[in-house]
## 1
Amino acid sequence: MSVPILTLDGPSGSGKGTIGRAVARHAGWHLLDSGALYRLVALAGRKRGLGQSDVQGHAALAVSMDVRFAAEGEAERVLLDGREVTGEIRTEEAGQGASRVAAWPEVRAALLARQRAFAEPPGLVADGRDMGTVVFPEAALKVFLTASAAERALRRYNQLKEKGSGASLSALSREIAERDARDSSRAVAPLVPASDAEVIDSTGLAVAEVVDRVIELGRRRTLWA
Ligand code: DC
């Protein structure tokens, strides 16, 4: 029997990570943070000194890089070639690097098998931009999560402040707008809802309300109790 999959796509700062973690915990399913893979490709390229336009070099790294996601209680650690990069891949700079390499079809193709390998019993929650459209088109439930750009910038700002990193709200808004534009306009696997996706606008909703909606959608499709 095929492994049931819930795809969670949406723009930067729409809450996919938080919602995905909560739903995966509820269901007892595995979690794929596909954005982390794009961030890791960009970081691995930088560490190897690859040129910013070396498409083939980055695509090769997407296949060969040694990545480990290690859950430690509530926290998730990410290791690249055995070295911890958990904090390093979460910076805005890493996000911009990821968005750049993610526009290259060769890198996207090179990451396909790695992403699909996460589909293991009892099920998978896959978060990203093209989970429902390209990587897992057969998913049992597809959710497209969105929120206004202003709210997404504010959430990112509060997240960074909590971590003690300084950030300017206007710079974050600008970066989010730039990343949205690049992710939505690229030729391959642009950020668009799958035609059969359930769209949830989380502007003004608390995390728990969004989680409840997704859990209810899954329940209606008998994905879990
Ligand atoms: O979700 P995130 O912010 O960690 O993603 C970082 C970048 O990677 C994002 O700007 C676009 C890209 N990405 C993608 O193109 N496809 C995915 N499935 C996930 C992320």
## 2
Amino acid sequence: MPAEIIDGKQIAREIREELKREVERLKAQGVTPGLGVVLVGDDPASQSYVSSKEKACEQLGMYSDDNRLPPETTQEELLELVDKMNIDPNIHGILVQLPLPGHIDEKIVINAISPDKDVDGFHPVTIGRMVIGDTCFLSCTPHGIWQLLIRSGVEMSGAHVVVVGRSNIVGKPIANMLYQKKEHANATVTICHTRTKDIAYHTRQADIVIAAAGRPDTITADMIKQGATIIDVGINRIDDPTRKRGYRLVGDVDFEGCSRKAGLITPVPGGVGPMTITMLLYNTIESAKATLQS
Ligand code: BQF
């Protein structure tokens, strides 16, 4: 029996409907959730991500403050803008689109964002809170993966989750979220990476495989257990002259092969990707809510 496909686009749509009502409620109380957006340089992928995020804000009735800075922007200028946004009461979340140009130190910029507005969840204070299990902004891609699993009815408690990849933006945080002593978590988590001796040995035992290695065909059908849940976080551009853009997107999973053996599987595109932006909106709205409660 072929795997059931987890429709990330549809689940993202449902969450955005919920969020839209939340924004209306907040506006009625005099608060419009606002996202401060910063893009430095002219990387086409980053431009497209930033535009999608701003469009998504608009669709929910949120405010977004668009700041597109030239590639030669200095670190000092960027830090000045971040400082301004830190104290701007109309901005509840700050999004500095990564990657930044080489002459700017990403770590310094991330550290400059107030943890109270860290809707990307990349600040070390936020990460510390997450690891401890405190309430915090959960970083968007792993939070999106978690929501996909929850809303698809996947049992996490006691499940063996194998995460392939150990990046700061996906592998490390999703592993942390899923082993927490919390509802919809309590999994046993294994993290595999480039130096793991036999990745297939681990993934074959997994009830849930999360592929975030950044390489196509990292997970093939022979590497998974019958009926497993497969989450594909990869976004790899493959040259394709038949497409108008000249490329197509593929994940880290051999979708063809794995969808014949898995129980549930996410597609690329239309799986984890749409959830990432949705959770950014979610975090910004939560941040706006917090200003009312204090
Ligand atoms: C889809 C990102 C690497 C580096 C910086 C939908 C997105 C992607 C795919 C998207 C990403 C990846 C984002 C799909 C935002 C996810 O349908 O498959 C949406 O917009 N993303 C980003 O802002 O920065 C990145 C990946």
